[in-house]
């Protein structure tokens, strides 16, 4: 019997119920797995057309879900959830919950898939996006297992059950494949669910690896099948979760020669990542234990220790390290030095190498203006010199108050050396769990409130009365140091950049954002190499929460970048305004930054007070002196700062040609608001650049650019084009309108203005076209007369003539206010 046809031809819910009842009574051998999915699809479509609900058919539908193809049935339920009515959503969520709890675990644990990667891609993508697809509909009926955290934990538990099956297969000498599991785990890590992977899959599997070699091989094989780009989030989360770093060997194996994995463990974690305390110390201890366990001769650990000592002692790198990175690197070096002291006490050569590498860093830190950096240099200097077998008098000893900070750093040296299992005579480092909790001391966290109590000196009773002010002095000094560390302003652009990209510390981001404009102005040479990075960061920051009042600081920084580095920033804006990489608000803000920068650069034009006329005495004499022999006052030359930067702002905005495949064409079709602002920005830039030597050439390029937009359907764009033509035509080269040149463009412009004035339905466009036509006629005639008779007394753009007046900035603002997008001029 063809059940698909039978379901399709059902005329009522009663007939459908009878067909499904007969189908399920015959057993799974009567219908193929794919046919069950088709029957399920046809049955759901019929029930939707009957508008009778799914409650009476839930048992039959659940039975079909167990028999049908898992991938097809899951896609079908999500599609029905998206397209179904409100009354059906409750029943569909019930079926989807049943599918996730009873059908999906069997499918994943059995791993019934082919070995082709193409067959996994759709399933992995579907599983990774399922919570996001279902969440909007759970407002009607919340199902916990379909939420993000519970769902990924559930799937990871299913993968763990699948590994149990793989373990049994290996015990029976059968071959297994973990490609699907590796790709699925990698997908979860890439979408930010590495905590669920570690919590529900890796940690339970590690417990079985202690006494079972097969489980170790399973985990190592699974890790090899995880994509390389997912290694970093997985390893960082695993390092922060394991109690003993030696367990990492069960996951990554004893061979970490693979370039990306080696760079992650030896470079990225120590030098390129920042972890807040106490997470940083726990991760560093786990990494050191991992390298200690890789080989018996401890060569991997020795290489890491030398690398840490060299990086800490690099005097050039120290200048560009933020305080957080500085303290993080110091902790890692002290932890490694503690392992060296306890577990390798007889390796004098290694100790000497560490001492030679560290001493330059100690010298540099002693010259630092930050007290915390100086104290960390003193502590490391004392620790490293004591490692070498020298007399106590020869070891470094600095005079400083033994505060909680220094005590905490010295406590990181404490570690125990125990006998290695399986390697007689070899020791391995072990830290107790409680030392991790000690990092929660107040010194490890920024001090936000309350006063810091002075240290109680046991010898204070023996001090004479002249030193009574020492405790008060120490209190102020310690409080100021902690306040500076917690809310101190960055001193270098690299520190500022690191703070801006750190999303976990909003207070630090706010301080860096407030300090960015000043640092950009002071360190222009360094900023030149970081302009693109700062622009991308500033436009990606969401001004919410504690950053809600930082809009002015960000605008100031963006304008400062545009003023100091017009070429780089102009290229960035010219590219991003036309693309869809940023939202509409960000792209409008880019145009606003260009206008603000151009306004500031050209503000000195006509500003006599901004011109230095000499000493105050000379200015006073000139102001008080009457001149009878001269009919005119002495004119002082004024600097036009926009003269060298105009092309850097204008040319990137018009650099792309206009073809049906370019972003300009898409911009014209999709977003009239942004396009009108773009043309108005070009108009304003040409207005500021009207007296520059290179203005004629720029005008021709701008005219060529906006000419293709003259017939735009939106009135605001058309008005912007008319105003732009009115401004540009005044600076058109004389040769362009002479008798020796082709008059084709001028004729086309006149015809276009005449058509707009006569046929355009928008009255404002017609009025503006009439004004532009009058100005064009007079400008052309004036230029022709000037070209034919150079002895005429008036110029081509003479502003003293009474019958016409060139377009001014107020005219541009007035025309812009005619459109619906008048917010352009509010700033």
Give a concise summary.
The protein is an all-alpha fold and 827 residues long. It is built from 39 helices and two strands. Helix 4 runs parallel beside helix 6 and helix 25 packs parallel to helix 28.
Q: Can you put this structure into words, describing what you see?
A:
- With 827 residues, the protein is mainly alpha-helical.
- Helices cover 63% and strands 1% of the residues.
- It has 39 helices and 2 strands.
- It has a two-stranded antiparallel sheet with strand order 1-2.
- Helix 18 runs parallel beside helix 20.
- The C terminus is likely disordered.
Shape: flat
Distance between the termini: 74 Å
Q: Averaged pLDDT, please?
A: 75
Helix content: 55-70%
Largest sheet: number of strands, sense, barrel closure: 2 strands, antiparallel
Structural class: mainly alpha
Q: Low-confidence runs (pLDDT<50, min 5 residues)?
A: 433-486, 605-617, 634-638, 657-661, 737-743, 787-807, 812-827
Q: Please give the number of β-strands.
A: 2
In terms of DSSP E residues, the strand content is: under 5%
Walk across the major sheet and give the strand order: 1-2
Calculate Rg over CA atoms: 37 Å
Instruction: Figure out the total of helices.
Output: 39
Salient structural properties:
single chain; 2 strands; mainly alpha; 63% helix; 827 residues; disordered C terminus; 39 helices; two-stranded antiparallel ribbon
